[in-house]
Amino acid sequence: MGTLAQKGLVTRKERGSKTLYSFASPESIRGLVELERELLDERARKLNDLIPLLSQHTKKNPEERLDIVQYEGIEGMKMVMDIAFYCRSKKWDIIAPYKNFLREYDREYAERYLRARKHYGVTSRTLWESGMRDGRKLSQDEKQDRNPRLMPSIMHGKFKSMMVLFDDKIAIFSSFEKHSAILITSKELHGMFSAMFAGIWEISEPY
After folding, report:
1. Do 75 and 67 touch, CB atoms closer than 8 A?
2. What separation in angstroms does the CA of 170 have from each of 57, 67, 174?
3. Residue 77: which of 184, 175, 173 has the closest Cα?
4. For residue 204, which of 155, 151, 153, 159 has the smallest C-alpha distance?
5. For the chain, what is the mean pLDDT?
6. Angle value at C-alpha 116, between 112 and 121, nearest 5 degrees
7. Edge-to-edge strand order for the sheet containing 148-150?
8. H/E stretch holding 107
9. Least confident of 23-32, 53-62, 99-108, 181-190
10. Bridge-partner residues for 19, per DSSP?
């Protein structure tokens, strides 16, 4: 009853030791409803004025979006790799040092990685260090899917991290000893790294 009294829907009278409640008149209740409706209308108008400001804040131009997230540990590195598998474009550009996360972790995960790439239909342009030509024969399908090239020998040892470019994202996997990965979402930065990749790609030789 206290809440109803606060809202003006009932009146309260003290009579001796008793408290008597009675409902307000229909006209009073109708007036209260009208007041509540006016307040709701006023809140709706204020919200409508606020929405464009919220939209400007939360729906930034994709060209301006910048997100940087760091993932720790082997499981974090795997998580970033899984995100890359779901890329919209189904295309990666990769720079991989001789000692990279996939090569150093374990054989089972490396094979799972290759199966997952095949399953999700991801193809790539892959830049390897010259030391990657270790006598391993690639099947024709692997060559077609991974499209590897060997970077000039002058670049040997310059890359400690593995980098995967896809969509508007840059995934950077630390050297295996560090156990971390960074995922950057930025159309601007992705464009810059893609231009750098294309320059190295042009001066690299087919595997």
Report:
1. no
2. 24, 10, 13
3. 173
4. 151
5. 78
6. 155
7. 67-72, 180-185, 169-173, 162-166, 91-96, 123-128, 148-150, 205-206
8. helix 107-120
9. 53-62
10. 14
Residue 116: count other Cβ atoms within 10 Å of its Cβ: 14
| Model confidence pLDDT, tens digit, residues 82-95 | 899 989 999 999 99
DSSP for residue 160: -
The CA R_g of the chain, rounded to the nearest whole Å, is 31
- Does 56 score more than 60 pLDDT? no
The model scores a pTM over 0.85 = no
Integer Cα distance of 193 and 106 in angstroms: 29
Q: What percent of the chain has pLDDT over 70?
A: 65
Fold of the CATH domain 63-206: Endonuclease; Chain A (3.30.870)
Cross-strand pairs, 67: 185
Q: Is 29 exposed, middle or buried (0-12, 13-18, 19+ CB in 10 A)?
A: middle
Segments making up each domain of the chain, as ranges: 2-58, 63-206
